[in-house]
Structure formats: structure tokens, C-alpha cells
Amino acid sequence: MNSNEELLHRCFDADLNDNEMKKLFLDLSKNADLRNTFRKFQSLQHDLHMLSQPAVPASLDARMSTLRPALRFRQMQDRPLLRRIVSKKISLSLPALAAAFLLMIMGGYFAVTNVAIPKPKVEYVYVVEMPAYIVQSNYTSLKNN
Amino acid sequence: MQHLQLTDEQLAIRLQSGDAEVTALIYERFKSGLFMFCVRILSNKDAAEDAVHETFVKLIVQHSQLSHPASLKSWLYTIARNEAFASLNRTKRIRELNDDDENIFESDDALSMDGTEERLKIVETVLNQLLPQYKEVLLLREYESMNYEEIAHITGTTISAVKSRLFKARKAMMKKLEPLKKRGYDEFE
């Protein structure tokens, strides 16, 4: 695009500084083709703004009103099953969790104290059955000695 | 009425700080513009409704990704634009742009010169015939009054590409509407 056309184009985009604006104004006064193009641009822009804008359908509004509850459900669905279960259980049974923790502490205490208590000594009596001839021979030898 | 005075930035900050109720305010503020933008890009009201719906789903779920609260509007239009183009891609392949390509219309159908046709209907037809990449820059400029930088950010192109596309789109539309001159198109002349 040539410089005049570029200025014209940027004029419609509100992108001109003061100096560029002055230059375009002067060029427009001298150049009939540029004036013609300017009018066409202006006409097109006018028509674009005259086009009827599609109204937002009521169905979209209805969808949006249900969007937040639906999203909450979707977020729940997206979370991994285990995390969902754990978070639900934890949120529902915090007192039970506290009780379980207390029991665990008590269990640990008893486990430790049980180890510390000395076990009662048990004396074992071994009974050995010996053949009678061995007992007899030993008795005889002891008697002779 | 107090929330009507909130700026886009304030709305975004409130949303990010956990005020979920502000979603409704953001929806009310942007729904018309976003819907119109999507309808024009997609030429289909149902598909546009889906695109806007998904845009607000992403607003609620991913609002933490909005790094600059002041650019809430650009962010929403970027999402809507991506949703609309994804929808277009599902139904038809979008032609890759070539800067030297003179034909920037999707179809070369001749305009009806039937006297009963209203001028604005024809302008709308020509607008709808533009390739989506040209249509989007024109819509963002004309209806949302965005500057080149914002449009470049939303469309993922450079500022010079935005300028070039805007110029080509307008010029091509004027050229296509030229035959209507005798039917009173150039009422300013």
C-alpha cells in the first residue's frame, strides 16, 4: 500500500498522530482519488456499523445460569477417585480421625511399656528316660569306687 | 448498580481472589460482544453459542492463568477466537493464508443484484464471505474498537500483519461492493 493509502487506512483505526493527520488532510484536499477512496472507506464503515447485531439467545443465558453448579460437579468428577474418597472421609469423620490418632498413641505407649516389664523366669525340668541297665551299671561302679 | 462502575481489571481481580459471584457480572458485560464475534466468524448461531459457553467455562476454571487482570477483555476474546477457530476446523479446513493471495473471500459467489435485496444484507453477505482470518481482525477493530496491538495479541499475529489484513479486507470488500454503486451503495458520494 502507498503512504497515502496507509494513512487513510490508519485514520480509520484512530492510529494517526497530529502530524500524520495534517498530512492526510492536505493530501485529501489535493488528491481526488484519495478523496474517493476515503468516501468508500467511510461508507463501508458506516454500513458495517449499521448491520444488525445478533441478539444473545435466551438459551445461552439459561446455560450460564446452570454453569456454576455444573462446573462444581465436573470438578468433582475430574478429581481422582482416591482423593475424592479420602477428602470426603476426612471431611466427614474428623472426630473419628482424632479418636483413631489417640488410640494409636495409646497403643504405642503400651507396646513400649510391655517391652520394659521383665518376664517371669521359668525353670525348666528336663526329664530323660534312661535304660535300666545304664542306671544299674552306673550305680554298681559308683558303689565299688 | 455499584458493580457497573467496576473496571475490567477490578472484575478480574475479584474473580481471582475467589469472588465467584463476579462471573455473572463479567458474563453480562461481555456476552453480546463475544456472541456477535463468534456468530460472525462461524456464521452459525448454535456453534457460536457453544463457543461462548466454553469461553466462560474456561473463565471460571482457568482464571488463575490470566496474568494481567487489566487485559481481561483481550483474554476472553483470545479464548473465544480459539474456540471459534477450533469449531471451524472441525467442520471445514481453514485455508492457510498467503500474503500474496489476492482472493481473501471464502467463496466467489456473485452478489445478487436483485432490486429487492437490501444494501445492508449484501454488505453482511460480503462480510460473511471473508476468510475467517480477515473477518476476525475487521470485527475486533470495527465492533470492539481494539488497537493493532490487542488484535495482534488475540489473533496470534504481528501488528504489521494486522494492519495488512485490515487494509486488504476493507479494500476487497469495497471492490466487491463496487457493482452496487449504481444501486445507491455510495450514498456519501
Can you give me a brief rundown of this structure?
The complex is a heterodimer of chains A (145) and B (189). By secondary structure, chain A is mainly α.
Give an account of the 3D structure.
- The mean pLDDT of chain A is about 75.
- Chain A has eight helices and no strands.
- Chain A folds into two domains: about 5-50, no CATH class; about 60-115, no CATH class.
- The longest helix of chain A is centred in the C-terminal third of the chain and has 23 residues, at about 95-115.
- With about 140 residues, chain A is mainly alpha-helical.
- With about 190 residues, chain B is mostly helical.
- Chain B has two domains: about 1-90, Rna Polymerase Sigma Factor, Chain: A; about 120-180, Arc Repressor Mutant, subunit A (Orthogonal Bundle), CATH 1.10.10.
- Chain B is about 60% helix and about 0% strand.
- Chain B has eight helices and no strands.
- Chain B has helices spanning about 10-15, 20-40, 45-60, 70-90, 120-130, 130-140, 150-155, 160-175.
- In chain B, helix 2 crosses helix 4 (about 70-90) and helix 4 packs across helix 7 (about 150-155).
- Chain B is elongated, with a radius of gyration of 18 Å.
- Chain B starts with 7 loop residues before the first helix and ends in a 12-residue tail after the last helix.
- At the A-B interface, helix 1, helix 3, helix 4 and helix 5 of A face helix 2, helix 3, helix 5, helix 6 and helix 8 of B.
H/E element string of chain A? HHHHHHHH
Strand content of chain A: under 5%
Number of strands of chain A: 0
State the secondary-structure class of chain A.
mainly alpha
N/C terminus separation of chain A = 139 Å
- For the record, give the distance between the C-alpha atoms at the N and C termini of chain B, rounded to a whole number: 45 Å
Indicate the CATH topology of the largest domain in chain B: Rna Polymerase Sigma Factor, Chain: A
What would the principal axes of the Cα set say about the shape of chain A?
A: rod-shaped
How big is the Rg of chain A? 51 Å
CATH superfamily of the largest domain in chain B: RNA polymerase sigma factor, region 2, helix turn helix motif
Radius of gyration of chain B: 18 Å
Reading off the top of the CATH hierarchy, the class of the largest domain in chain B is best stated as Mainly Alpha
